[in-house]
Amino acid sequence: xxxxxxxxxxxxxxxxxxxxxxxxxxxxxxxxxxxxxxxxxxxxxxxxxxxxxxxxxxxxxxxxxxxxxxxxxxxxxxxxxxxxx
Length: 85
Ligand code: SF4
Ligand code: SF4
Fold this sequence. Notes:
The chain is an alpha+beta fold. The strands form two sheets. It has a two-stranded antiparallel sheet with strand order 1-4. Strands 2-3 form a two-stranded antiparallel sheet. Helix content is 20%, strand content 14%. The protein is globular. The protein has two helices and four strands. It has one domain: Alpha-Beta Plaits, CATH 3.30.70. One iron/sulfur cluster binds at residues 5, 9-15, 34, 56-57, 59, 61-62.
């Protein structure tokens, strides 16, 4: 399942450069916090054993998006689609 950023985000910008899929962005017109594109978030499958954004966030505001249930194999397929592997 993809991860999502809650309204507790303090816009510190630490997570954005850490994402290997460029899934994290900041667009103040859309939302006043950083956001994760669920179509690009693989929970870091294909790169790391754990979601790296969650590890670096200083306020623990990155959580699982329960509306985006995906198995490990679906996340791996997403990784392959993104990177055409
Ligand atoms: Fe990016 Fe990984 Fe965080 Fe998903 S879990 S947004 S792929 S850093
Ligand atoms: Fe927001 Fe956490 Fe990312 Fe900082 S690391 S921008 S607080 S989600």
